[in-house]
């Protein structure tokens, strides 16, 4: 198993962001983690990345219980802008190379080209769409076993969304990498997901294989998600 949650509860103060979650992610699959705002998607990814720890229960990644050290094996695209504004794109790429032994410079160069990013530009000069693209370059250039994308489409236009999906399909190694995409924009990732997990108020309320959803139950992911949420009165 690539990732295992064993009865994980995560509290921030008295509030439970995740409540007794048990969940498994298999290697080499693309997962969609779907849920409305505040449902616990980011918390789930942060637990895998070792940025927060369970209040109770355990999270195991690649057979090891998660500590900060896991960041060496987990590539994490956050929803936050973490860029050093005065850096150029090239400098940022070189900075990542020094931070992560699995960072592949050739892959980064190819991704920059595909995404039509100018290496000489300062990060503060980039449009929001190009910042989104750069974040993806930095994440996908890593040959990490686990790739976590938190809202990779938020605030980006249709063309940028398209180029993100294309680069995912091109640069993910489907034999080696497990990818989890947290989003509430289901349409975008519908064609590329293997498995879909619905999360609501800190609980996993559904987990399905996308192909069997379509073929056996005749549901699109969006239809399935709406009906799963509907049963919760949402
Ligand atoms: N650092 C924090 N301190 C206090 N409460 C937090 C913190 N981070 C998250 N929470 C709370 O935990 C719950 C789950 O948040 P989380 O960010 O995991 O949800 P999400 O599904 O990613 O939402 P969004 O789509 O809005 O990013 C929310 O109620 C949120 O307010």
TrEMBL record:
- Alphabetical UniProt keywords: ATP-binding, Nucleotide-binding
One Pfam family per UniProt: ABC_tran
Q: Where is the ABC transporter domain?
A: 3-226
Q: Which PROSITE patterns match?
A: ABC_TRANSPORTER_2
GO MF annotations, alphabetized: ATP binding; ATP hydrolysis activity
Query: What is the superkingdom listed in this entry's lineage?
Result: Bacteria
Can you name this protein? ABC transporter ATP-binding protein
> What lineage is on file?
Bacteria, Bacillati, Bacillota, Bacilli, Bacillales
């Amino acid at each position: 198993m690539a990732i295992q949650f064993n009865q994980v509860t995560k509290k921030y103060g008295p509030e439970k962001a995740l409540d007794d979650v048990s969940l498994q992610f298999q290697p080499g699959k693309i997962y969609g983690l779907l849920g409305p705002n505040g449902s616990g998607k980011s918390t789930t990814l942060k637990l895998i990345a070792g940025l927060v720890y369970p209040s109770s229960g355990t999270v195991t990644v690649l057979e090891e219980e998660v500590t900060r050290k896991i960041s060496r094996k987990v590539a994490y695209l956050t929803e936050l802008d973490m860029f050093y504004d005065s850096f150029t794109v090239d400098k940022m790429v070189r900075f990542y190379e020094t931070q992560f032994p699995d960072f592949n410079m050739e892959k980064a160069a190819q991704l920059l080209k595909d995404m039509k990013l100018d290496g000489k530009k300062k990060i503060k000069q980039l449009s929001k769409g190009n910042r989104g693209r750069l974040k993806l370059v930095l994440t996908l250039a890593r040959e990490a076993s686990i790739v976590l994308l938190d809202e990779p489409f938020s605030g980006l236009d249709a063309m940028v969304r398209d180029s993100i999906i294309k680069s995912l399909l091109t640069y993910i190694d489907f034999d080696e990498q497990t990818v989890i995409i947290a989003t509430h924009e289901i349409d975008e990732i519908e064609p590329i997901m293997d498995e879909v997990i619905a999360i609501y108020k800190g609980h996993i309320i559904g987990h399905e294989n996308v192909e069997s959803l379509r073929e056996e139950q005749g549901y699109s992911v969006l239809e399935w998600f709406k009906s799963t949420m509907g049963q919760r009165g949402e």
